[in-house]
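FORM 7B: Structural annotation worksheet

SECTION A. Query
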Amino acid sequence: MEHHGGRQDYRRRLAEIPGFGIDRVAAAAGDDPAILRMENLDTDVLPPPAALAATREAIGTDEANSWLPFSGRDDLKRAVAAHLRRRGAPSYDPAAEIVITSGEGDAMLDALLTLTDPGDEVILTDPTYAGMLNRVRLVGACPKLVPLVATQDEWRLDLERLEAAITSRTRVLFVNNASVPSGWVATDHEWETVAALCRDRDLWLLYWGGFEGVLFDGREPFQPASLPGMRERTVTIGAATFELRMIGWRIGWMVAPEPLVPDLTRVQIYNGLVASGHNQIGVRAGLEAADDGLAEANAEWQRRRDETLRQLDGLPVVRPAGAWSLLLDVSALGHDCVAASDRLLAQQVAATPMRGWGGPVADRHLRFVFSNEPVERLVLLGDRVRRALEP
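SECTION B. Predicted structure
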């Protein structure tokens, strides 16, 4: 009976946490080269050459093969602080206000464990990254969803619903920008409203800026901690994953006001423990490179976005302002998102259903990742999608 009760507790913890969905689509796609691989946040655009060289040189050296320092290398912390400053963030003390993590996932969980207690409410958008939503559930907090609204040209945050969602139990607004899976990029007015709510209602802003520099149509990165009164109530999560195209390095960071950092560090030590030494060295080189290749990468990703939009012209899609993916409203076409994903796979397109990536808004959509297929292959997309989704 005692063992059975333990199993019941286990099931309750994970009861509302579904599988990721991407792995199911990827497994079904297999290694068929004819399939357009648009299910996962990958890219074939290479990392900065300086980062590759520094990583190779560091492998096998004594300094790169250590448990220490637990909170991350000092030189990488300095590089992160300088990177954020170039983006318009406030100045941060590298030693006292930055913690290096094993990627953005560890950082999200660390921050949520530090900022919330079980039963506290965390507000996210609908749709949002499933890894954000389900880490809120893993720490025992309660997610509350505020819809993104599909306007004629872009996604916009429903600011009235955002304000109405805040209660006495709300502790954190958890936002990523540019946002996956939608490509939403917040306007100045949206950021100012978010900041005002955080100040007036005494909330933390947990900001994942993984795609903040992956922007299209001339947009510029923005650091919400730079707004009045926000430095002391913002935890910024970043990583080398997307902008530097260093997916496999698994290096991220948390940047926060000094009083919070000992707790963030303590959680990181017992969660991720220590990030890879040689990969930290490689990421530092990427951040310090005279040319990190981001401008050229953004130009290529924008070409792929534009071709994807051309291929889906006339279908209910919303133009992404940044990041690597866009959404197709298959519910508007009379399809369930999971069934539509299966139909697309039969036509050699791998795309992920957004069930579990938010609430009713997410559930209407399929996600197409355009960052890992060249334009020459994306020209095949439109005919395949229309064959799959025709009545």
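SECTION C. Observations
The mean pLDDT is 95. The CA atoms of residues 255 and 371 lie 28 Å apart.

SECTION D. Sign-off
Analyst initials: ____
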